[in-house]
Amino acid sequence: MSKHFETQSAFKTYKMNQQIQQLENQIRRWLMFFILALIISGVTAMPVEAELNFFLKNFPAVQPISGLFTKVLAAVKLTNQTYPFLLYGYDWLAFAHFVIAIAFIGPVREPLKNIWVIEFGMLACVLIIPFALIAGASRSVPLFWRLIDCSFGIIGFIPLWIVRNKIVQIRKIYNYEKQNLIF
Q: CA 20 to 30 Å from 170, out of 98, 112, 142, 146?
């Protein structure tokens, strides 16, 4: 009788470990996607003048975006000619994306211990929405463009929400208490 319970317990442990491994692999894939998206976003922040030239050359008839991009390109060129140091802000924007991406390496390595990084990212994504709407309005950014900026917060929130839920699933398997969770 004892061997039956030992076999059953070993099988249950094996299934539990297999489920945890599967969840951890899914977490890592979602986080690598998120990190890559942050890096790409950062890289595209630096060559803004070249990107605007490329877009307008290859997609001239896309309205109303091409009209806005033409205006932005003129402002970037004038700023770059007159006050090039102001575009240094784009470099710092890119750097911030890279640093934030590095922060997510912790949850890739140890998701249970670093759930706070996921929650921080979720909060940052939520805060993009009021920030884009308020700051964009104060800078006369068209509403449709502010909504595009807001979409980055929504798009970024989704994989982090999925990751957080998977971490919570693992915690339940391990019978973690729900301490130190923001949401």
A: 98
